[in-house]
Write a structure and sequence with these properties.
Structural class: mainly alpha
Shape: elongated
CATH class: Mainly Alpha
Radius of gyration: 17 Å
Helix content: over 70%
């Protein structure tokens, strides 16, 4: 936890980023249910757990400042992205379904990195900025993990 309370604008920026983390967590759990590949299930569940850890780590900063619980929620963009992925999976051959999920999740990782970088530039608290920069390292690892998985999967047409 930070030494002092963050500003209201920092708390709102943080809440926005944590909603994006909730989106990714939800999508990873959804993908884990969709795949029959046990290695992918483990990967997707690991990625969801890392997002949950970020939410749990940063939630108290919001709650201390706003004096209310943070209710992370999935966004409409997330719901549309998940629906789009489901539609792509439904119309692809079985051999390509996992590739579609991984490809879509890598795009979620791209979006999360952008959102986190924007949040880092937006916050005014140097301590919160440092905490977010630590998360950025983890986000890059998560992104690279999905990108490598996608790049090493067969792209069956």
């Amino acid at each position: 936890m930070l030494d002092k309370t963050i500003s209201e604008s920092d708390a709102k920026a943080l809440a926005s980023f944590l909603d994006i983390c909730e989106d990714a967590k939800s999508f990873y759990l959804h993908a884990a249910e969709k795949t029959d590949d046990e290695a992918l299930k483990r990967l997707f569940n690991d990625q969801a757990a890392s997002r949950d850890a970020i939410i749990r780590d940063l939630r108290p900063e919001y709650e201390i400042r706003m004096k209310e619980p943070l209710e992370t929620k999935t966004t409409m963009t997330h719901k549309l992205h998940e629906w789009y992925a489901d539609m792509k999976v439904a119309v692809t051959r079985e051999a390509k379904e996992d590739y579609v999920l991984v490809k879509e999740l890598e795009e979620v990782e791209d979006k999360t990195l952008v959102e986190l970088q924007e949040t880092i530039h937006e916050v005014q608290s140097p301590e919160l900025e440092n905490r977010l920069n630590l998360q950025l390292t983890q986000m890059h690892k998560a992104h690279d993990r999905m990108m490598n998985m996608k790049d090493n999967m067969p792209k069956t047409h």
